[in-house]
Each structure stands twice: as structure tokens, then as C-alpha cells.
Amino acid sequence: MADLFSLTESGDAKNSAAPLAERVRPNSADEFIGQEHVMGENGPLGKMLRSGRISSFLIYGPPGTGKTTVAKIASSNKRAVFISATNAHIKDIRSLIKDLAKEKKFSGQTPVLIIDEIQHFNRKEQDAFLNAVENGDIILIALTTENPSFYINSALLSRLSVFHFYKLTDAEIKKIIKQAIEKDEVLQKFVFDAAAVDFIAKVSDGDARKALNLLDVITQTSREKHITVDIAKQFASRILSFGKEKHYDLISAFIKSMRGSDPDAAIYYLYRMIRAGDDPLYIARRMIRFAAEDVGLADVNALVVANAAFDGFQKVGPPEGYLILAEAAIYLAKCKKSNAVYLAEKSVLSEIETSGDLEVPKKLHNPVTKLMRAEGYGRGYKYPHNYPGHTVKGETYLPEKIKDKKFYKED
Q1: 174 in the same domain as 122
Q2: The total number of structural domains that make up the chain
Q3: Residue pair 93/116 in contact by the 8 Å Cβ criterion
Q4: Are residues 15 and 22 in contact, defined by beta-carbon separation less than 8 angstroms?
Q5: 20 to 30 Å CA-CA from 179: which of 96, 164, 294, 327?
Q6: How many angstroms separate the CA atoms of 141 and 33, rounded?
Q7: CA gap 67, 44 in Å, rounded
Q8: Residues 135 and 283 in one domain
Q9: Does the residue 346 lie in any domain?
Q10: Is the residue at 381 inside a domain?
Q11: Are residue 112 and residue 210 in the same domain, yes or no?
Q12: Would you tell me how many other CB atoms lie within 10 Å of the CB of residue 16?
């Protein structure tokens, strides 16, 4: 499971090479800034965190408002697993929940399962959490940017305390910036004019992560140690100009450059995105997808390299980690290309949509009961390892109606 999920034990020292937002993340409810309606001294969530007695809850609200930070504070000094639903499979989650339930029996401590962007699991998939939460096998902390009324299974929602986080005010962002400057050794080497802090707070539009990322970019790149509002504007203009349209233009150019086997163009667009403030892990995720879609089985190491780049950047952080992404981009650009797997996916999904849920041939069923054996389940199955080349010539495994279909076609 450690390969699939981020396993966390609170209290670990923060990596000095990690992004600024991670380095200065608050460690307690008292350090947390914003969301006074729930995190204040009399707020229900703040009271829960300060008591140390945590029950399952859900937070929804815009990016950069403190959802992940609160989840990490809540799981402090507890066995915790952090999962992003954007790249996890529900079958793996079910297996993980079983493992965590076993752990609880031995340790007597209830593990915390943090699910980021839980809305990416559909309502039926969310049933996987119901019994574990109901039985107290896990404490579930669910995070989402969407209104849970529309995206979260009502049965699960009824078992969670729900807290709404709002966009931060400019005053709260300024407090977060000042707290970061006081806390971080890198930022302490710089002097920030009050006007520069005011400007960064304003352009961040209620998103603390955006403000901290801008601070990070400034301190990584600026030759000046005295940061004026003019310097802040120079860096902000790069990031602010990087709107959705330019974001999609650059990522499109990056992907098409790798697809076109042009390593020079690939790293050019890579560093354009990095300079503009795009999330490096987003770029890494797109390379993982590219490795499967555009390289496929033409070079099976491509997927290994892309995954290693994602993991490597998480461990090293900026700016050194950018070189890891560049190495992966060059490798992917120089690879032989094949979209056969991608075309197979499209073909098989189209067939399923057309023919529906066809019956699995009886010979492929496991006849686990006498009744099933009597009805012919498993009958006629030929064990491939008993045949030359470990293949049964002429044997078919698809449902009868589509037994001659070919989805994967080699280049």
C-alpha cells in the first residue's frame, strides 16, 4: 500500500527543499489563520481539533482556504493515510480500509483516512466508506471543492460533520504571509515592503496557496533581497497572465512537442509553465498520462520514468526538482511512440457502450459451489500453461457475441 498512497505520521520534520506552502503549514489549530466561524476559539471544528478527540468530518470550499492544513492538524500524532481521489482506484481503497481495520484491532488506535477531492468517487463508490465509518474502523476526513449536497452520497454525508470554508480575506492572506516570513528560514533572508505584502495579498484573490507560491517564486528567482511592490508586480504579472487560456495553450504545446519527438520544444514549454507558476506536479501527472497514451508499449520504461519523475519531485521539491521533470520530458520526447493502448481503450469502451453488459462465458467462471459446477460453470476451461507456448491456440475468452473482436492492434 505504501506505493499507492501517501502514508503520513504527523510530527515528521519538514523538508527544507519542499514548497513554501508545505514548509510553513500550521501545526496546530492555534496557528491556523482564517475560517473563524468554524476554527475560532468557539468554532465547532476548532474545538474538536484542540480537544484532540476527532470524529469523521467533511470540509468543502475553494482552493487555498486551509482544507488540507486542517486535515493534517486533525491527524497529528495519529496513524494517517492521505489519498487524492483524482488518481486512486476505489478497489484499492476498499483493500486499504480492510488493512486499516486490522491495524486498529492490534493497536487499539483508530487510523485517519484523508480523502482529497472525494467528489471524484461517484456516489456508489462512496459506499466503500460507509461501514468503516459507521463501525468506527476509521476516522474519515473528506475534502472537496464542490458542494457536497450535489456530489456526496447522502448516506455517507449523514455520518459526517460538514464544515464550509470560504475564500480568505485580504487581511487574512496578509497575516498568512507575515506568519510565513517569520517562520521560514528562506524568507527571513529577504525584506518585504508592506506595500509588496499588500499587493501579493490582493492579487492572490483569497487563495493562500497562490500567495505562498508567489512568495516562493520571488525568493527562488529574485536577485534582490529587498522586495518592493514593483518587484512583486513583475513576478505576479507572469503568474497572473497565466490564465486558463494560456495554461491550456502551454500544456497542449508541451504534450504535442513530446508527441512530435522534439525534446527541445518539450523542455522549452516545460520551463515556460514553471516560470508562469503552474503546479509542477500537474505537469508530472500529464507526463504519466502521456507515457501511457502516446508511448504505450513501444517503450515500457516510459511509464516508469514518468512515475519516478512525479515521486522524485515530491521528494526534492523546487528548484532542484525541475531538473527531474526536464529529464523525464526529454526521455518521453525521444521515446518511440505508439497509441495502440489508447486506441484499444477507445475501441473497448465504444463496444461496451454498444453491446452493454454481456455475460461472461461460463467456462471462465470459478465453480465455487456444487450448484455452479452442476450448471456448467468452469466446464471446458483449458489451462494455458498445459499447452505449448503457454497458449491455447484458437481459444476465445470474450463473450460469445463479440468473441472475434480485436481491440488492441499492434503497430
Answers
A1: no
A2: 4
A3: no
A4: yes
A5: 164
A6: 20
A7: 15
A8: no
A9: no
A10: yes
A11: no
A12: 10
Q: Is the domain of 292 the same as that of 364?
A: no
On whether residue 410 sits in a domain, the answer given is no
pTM of the model: 0.58
User: What integer pLDDT is reported at residue 6 of this predicted model?
Assistant: 46
Of 76, 321, 33, 6, residue with least CA distance to 183? 33
Coil, strand or helix: which one is 60?
A: strand
Give bridge partners of residue 9 from the DSSP assignment.
79
Residues 223 and 251 in one domain: no
Which among 337, 321, 318, 335 is positioned nearest to 263, based on CA atoms?
335
What pLDDT is stored for residue 277 in this prediction? 67
Residues 6+ apart with CB under 8 A from 321: 17, 280, 312, 313, 315
Q: Higher-confidence residue: 61 or 16?
A: 61
CATH (domain of 265): 1.20.272.10
Mean pLDDT of the chain: 89
Segments forming the whole domain that contains residue 371? 352-402
CA-CA-CA-CA torsion sign (29, 32, 38, 41)? positive
Is the dihedral angle over the CA atoms 21, 22, 24, 28 positive or is it negative?
Answer: positive
Q: Residue-wise over 243-278: b if at least 16 C-beta within 10 A, else e?
A: eeeeeeebbebbbebbbeeebebbbebbebbbebbb
Q: Compute CA 259 distance to the chain's CA centroid, rounded to the nearest angstrom.
A: 24
pLDDT given for residue 23 in this prediction: 92
C-alpha cell read off for 273? 509553465
pLDDT of residue 248: 78
pLDDT tens, position by position, 4-43: 444 444 444 455 567 898 899 999 999 999 999 999 999 9
Could you identify the residue written with the cell 475564500?
A: 167
E-assigned strand segments in 61-198: 79-84, 112-116, 139-144, 161-164, 191-192
Please say whether the beta carbons of 215 and 177 come within 8 A.
yes
For residue 2, pLDDT beyond 50: no
What is the mean predicted confidence (pLDDT) over 230-254? Answer: 72
